[in-house]
Amino acid sequence: MLPLLGSHEPWSGGPITASATCVLAGNPGPMTLDGTNTWVLRAPGDDVAVVVDPGPDLPAHLDAVEAALQGARVVRVLLTHGHPDHAEAAASFALRVSAPVAALDPAHRLGDEGVVDGDVVVVGSLEIAVVCTPGHTADSLSFHLLGDGALLTGDTVLGRGTTVVAHPDGRLADYLHSLHRLRLLAEETGAGVVLPGHGPALADPVAAVTAYEAHRHDRLEQVRAALDAGAVTADDVVATVYADVPREVWPAARLSVLAQLAYLDRD
């Protein structure tokens, strides 16, 4: 995740909406920010729950997720996408709580059921609409918590920084379409909060997604300018366009540049 946008205030998770609590994994780093956000979703008064993105396979983290359930039974584990910082612990956590794992990509499922765009997962009083948002990866999903007016976005929209379009699996055209779709969804439903895969919750989804769209178009213009100025390789573009970004995240920036070049049909 490229640290270019958003607040740098520390983030520790906790309850965010009536139904959503973040349990922050102990895997901070340049690409995971404060760590991975595991989301425990349970409607008030219900004794059943959903866990989204169990995160890294760290026993202390999985213990904390179980504690956050406060005795509720996990009916389903959902994945926003299959990157290890979100999905590594899915199988072990699912075995702990005897629940299936549902994902868009069959390779990351445990059990017979997956989820696809347009599904509504109903668990107790909780309704979770599945929104296909490819771009960061081909299998990226977001989840709309209908009762809370919340958009759980995985790595499609982060609480700080910008998302890597992980070329070649991630595609910039798909990502721009996904941002457009999320912004329209936020506008149409009056969604009031983004629950991201990393970093703090965001109180204005429309503003957050609009900023992401503007940033992507600005970066494209910068890439075009770098090419016109003589940049030849993706590394040349990174050194020019991402000069203000710490070098430790240049490999991730290179993936986004490759996606940008593919979008511009230049390599």
The chain-level mean pLDDT equals 95
Number of DSSP helical runs: 7
Terminal CA distance reads 23 Å
> Can you identify the CATH superfamily?
Ribonuclease Z/Hydroxyacylglutathione hydrolase-like
User: Could you please say which CATH topology applies here?
Assistant: Metallo-beta-lactamase, Chain A
Q: How many β-strands, per DSSP? A: 13
Shape: globular
- Helical residue percent? 25-40%
Strand residues, percent: 15-25%
Question: Quick one: biggest sheet?
Answer: 6 strands, mixed
Task: Identify the CATH class.
Answer: Alpha Beta
* CATH architecture designation: 4-Layer Sandwich
Radius of gyration: 18 Å
**Class from secondary-structure proportions:** alpha+beta
Taking strands numbered 1, 2, ... along the chain, how are they ordered across the largest sheet?
2-3-4-5-6-7
Residue runs with pLDDT of under 50 for 5 or more positions: 1-6
What is the N-to-C order of secondary-structure elements (H for helix, E for strand)?
Answer: EEEEEHEHHEEEEEEHEHHH
When the domains are counted, the total is 1
